[in-house]
Structures are given as structure tokens and as C-alpha cells.
Amino acid sequence: MNAEDRVRLRHMVEAADAALGFMAGRTRADLDTDLMLAFAVVRAIGIVGEAAHHVSDEGRALLPALPWPAIVGMRHRLVHAYFQIDLETVWKTVNQELPPLREAVKNILDQG
Length: 112
Hints:
Layout: H1 3-23, H2 28-33, H3 35-53, H4 57-61, H5 68-80, H6 87-110
Helix pairs in contact: 1-3, 1-6, 3-5, 3-6
């Protein structure tokens, strides 16, 4: 794996960790009522997608099970359609999609 991919994959893990940390002990309703929480989680998910966008085809080939277009597409949606963010989708992303994504990327990084 090239050095740039390693950096971007590490950014993906760090941003996923941030989003998961922000939501730890929080409820779905908290996203609706805590604007700072919603902004922080959306930003962290956006960073995951931005970092994914910059991973090379060779780097992506190391993690073929990841839905790369969907990860990058989520970032584009959050940034460009900021006025239509569905917090239910954000909640599901953090609770269902980020943990296995984080684990898969971390495993590749740990392999060297």
C-alpha cells in the first residue's frame, strides 16, 4: 500500500472513531435536538467520504467489500445537499455502517 493511501485510510478510521465517540451514549432523538452533535457527526461522516475519495484504485482493491461509491456519495450528499440531510440516515450510518467499515479499514492498516 502506498503512503498516501495509508494516510487516507487512517483518516477514515479517525473520523469514524470521532463519529462513534460523539454518538456514544446518545439516542436518535439527540440528533434532532442537539444541533452541535448533528453538525459534528455529519462532519465526521463527511471526512470519511472525503478520505475515501482520495484512496487510489489499488488501495480500494485491498478492501473490495467496502461500498466505495456509496461512501464517497454520502460525503457528496452531505456537503452539496446540506439542506436536505436526513438525520435518520445519519443515525443508521453511524450505528450500522461505520463500525464494520472502521474495523475493515483498521485491519488492513494493522497488517502493515
